[in-house]
Amino acid sequence: MALHFERSEFDARRDRLMIDMAEKKLDAILLFAQESMYWLTGYDTFGFCFFQCLVVKADGSMVLLTRSADLRQARHTSTIENIAVWTDRADANPAVDLRNLLNDLDLLGARIGVEYDTHGLTAYNGRRLDEQLQTFGQIVDASRIVSRLRLFKSPAEIAKTEKAAALADDALDAALPLVKQGGDEAAILAAMQGTILAGGGDYPANEFIIGSGADALLCRYKAGRRKLNKNDQLTLEWAGVYHHYHAAMMRTVLTGKVSKRHQELFEAARAALLAVEKAMTPGNTFGDVFDAHARTMEAHGLTKHRLNACGYSLGARFAPSWMDMPMFYQGNPEPIAPNMTLFAHMIIMDSETETAMTLGRTYLTTESEPKPLSRHDLDLIVR
Fold this sequence. Notes:
Blueprint lengths: L6 H17 L4 E4 L2 H8 L11 E5 L4 E5 L4 H7 L5 E3 L8 H11 L6 E4 L8 H11 L4 E4 L2 H8 L3 H21 L9 H14 L10 E4 L19 E11 L2 E11 L4 H20 L6 H14 L11 E3 L10 E4 L13 E10 L4 E10 L6 E2 L11
Parallel strand pairs: 1-5, 3-4, 5-6
Antiparallel strand pairs: 1-2, 2-3, 7-8, 8-9, 9-13, 10-11, 10-12, 12-13, 13-14
Helix pairs in contact: 4-5, 7-8, 9-10
């Protein structure tokens, strides 16, 4: 069995979920997020692109409903003992299979939470689910229960995140010798991802971001590769990943001569990241962290060139994105607390001069100031 945590760790997580379910008077919860299933049981698959559901009752018992292709996957990677399979066929409706399963579990008329807000439950399948359950019991949105439990990391999870952070540092070390005039974005990407895999890491939940020249102003991956010029800018956002736990970093690396605008934007990015770091302490909120970022950008005259969020939680995530909730944005009331792993990114994109600057790293929150998980400093990188 390919479990990445001790059984006692999974037992503790189940107990935390049971306490929350009891507080919310839930007789059962239907989990559709792959992150929730992995966190609770170790179940590791990309089969969530199809209909699957982990039913957890108030007494902690669980049943997984999935497809035949994931039957062995669930047995091999998880603590789940009871697995039901719905059959692929013309006009199949697995929501009917789920309703019948819930009936067999004596949940007719029960108060049932549903994890609606996840990529593991499409709008189409959500509609089919609601059609089957509308008269079955009292259905409530339980999207935030497990995601909030996952926000607070155990010592074992922190150890995996620290390993991921070391892999992220190694990836940058592998990339930098290739960042030069004539350097190929494809070779840089291959070096970074190859270093993480060779170091025992995993694929990330989304593609690494790479862009040079005008594409350095993009903060999403796109197809196509380019070779670097003598005086160029290269934006990289990547994550070390270990057992699906992510530690992200972000840098804009320059080749050749540093322009005055690049220097101005870098100084603002570093000042903003340090301000964010100072605000990332218990007693403040995620909104307070964003405000520190926004104030610094405003002081540098860069409000129109910044984004409306400056980071987010990280953890064990699956496609299509390693971004987790909550995020640093205006007014977010979620309190900063110890044992969170948080990624702060300063992204400044000046479209008028086609100048990019980014700076970001992952932190572990503590009882006081946060701990940066990267061994790299915050100096401007020029090759």
